[in-house]
Amino acid sequence: MASVSQANQGRNDSGPGHPAAERAQTHRTRSLSALFIHRDADAIDSCLQEFKKGQFAVTSDFVLSLPQGVEQLKSRAYDVVLLEFPNPSCKSTESVLLLHQLAQQIPLILLTPRFGVESLARLGEQGSFEYVAREHLSHLPSAVRRALNEKKLRDELEDARKALLHSQSLYRALVDNPAYGIYQCDAEGDLLDANQALVTMLGYDSKEQLLAANRASVIIPNLRKSVPSTSGSSDRQQIEPLELEWKRKDGSPLKVRLGGRGAFDENGNFARYEIIAVDITEQRTLEDHLRHQADSDSLTGLANHRRLFEVLQTEICRSKRTGREFSLLLLDLDSLKKVNDQFGHLSGDRALCRLGQILKECCRSIDTAARHGGDEFALVLPETGCAAAAIVARRICELLERDPEEPLLSVSVGLASFPKDADTIGTLLYAADKVLYEMKAAQPRASRAGQSA
Question: Residue 62 maps to which CATH number?
Answer without folding.
Answer: 3.40.50.2300
